[in-house]
Amino acid sequence: MIGSVKIHDVGYVNIKSLPGFDDIEIIEHVQVQPTQKYYDDKQADYQIRKYQPPEYLTQNKKDEWMKVKSSNDPYELASFILQHWPQARPSVVLIMDVGLRMAEVIKGDTDPISLIFADKVTADAVYRDDIEIRPYNAVVAGILQMILSDRDSSKSLQILEVGAGTGGTTGSLLEKLDSKNTTYIFTDIGRSFLNQAQTKFDKYKAMMQYQILDIEKAPWELDVSKN
């Protein structure tokens, strides 16, 4: 596991390995019948395992769970991933930076948010371009497009984005909006995010507003206008 935590780093010792359970034992335990999707997933799982290098992933003869052999060296795993999926670099870099200090986070010595956003360029790349994030940004943009297509385009539109962060989702939305009748309020708890966004979205400045917003506060304490 990339960025794995050593047990003794967080103060726990004498942890024994959990036993393996095969599929039938799990099905009997939860008392459900396997669906066709289960069998399809098993076939897909077999194909994935078939083409994985044996030094990273091997299948137990009994097909037991938690019996996967893998490297314990996070740097070795990171190198392997980047060699085969170079487009995953931002995510791998972020996982390594955070994961290698996970013991500090678990013990409460380090703020995880500060680790994630220590390098805003990397964090921005993850939230904007990561292969797992891009589909979700596209879905949000698609929903916005549906809303726009069903409303009177002459009416004004106000959008409040909470926790906008690096603006990974924001960019996919702004390009679909008309600056003439739209007010887009970009909010986050950190001033640095707002400053970065003002530069990043300068071409949309006609409709942009930037504001600190901490939703952990009571609604009446927030400096946001009703509606």
Topology of helices and strands:
Blueprint: H1 23-30, H2 36-50, H3 74-84, H4 89-99, H5 102-106, H6 112-116, H7 120-129, H8 134-149, E1 157-161, H9 170-174, E2 182-188, H10 191-200, E3 208-212
Helix pairs in contact: 3-4, 4-7
Protein name: Putative type I polyketide synthase
The CATH C-level name of the domain at 156-221 is Alpha Beta
Distance between the termini: 46 Å
Q: Looking across the biggest beta sheet, what order are the strands in?
A: 1-2-3
The rounded Rg comes to 23 Å
Biggest sheet architecture? 3 strands, parallel
* Percent helix: 40-55%
The proportion of residues in beta strands is: 5-15%
CATH superfamily of the domain at 156-221: Vaccinia Virus protein VP39
Mean pLDDT: 76
Unreliably modeled segments:
12-21, 26-32, 53-60, 64-69
User: How many helical stretches?
Assistant: 10
The topology string of helices and strands comes to: HHHHHHHHEHEHE
- Give the CATH architecture of the domain at 156-221: 3-Layer(aba) Sandwich
**Molecular shape:** globular
Class from secondary-structure proportions: mainly alpha
CATH topology grouping of the domain at 156-221 = Rossmann fold
How many β-strand stretches? Answer: 3
Task: Explain what this protein looks like in three dimensions.
The chain is mainly alpha-helical. Among the domains are: 47 residues, no CATH class; 66 residues, Rossmann fold (3-Layer(aba) Sandwich). The protein is built from ten helices and three strands. Strands 1-2-3 form a three-stranded parallel sheet, with helices on one face. The radius of gyration is 23 Å and the shape is globular. Helices cover 42% and strands 7% of the residues. Helix 3 runs antiparallel to helix 4 and helix 4 packs across helix 7. This is Putative type I polyketide synthase. InterPro entries: SAM-dependent_MTases_sf.
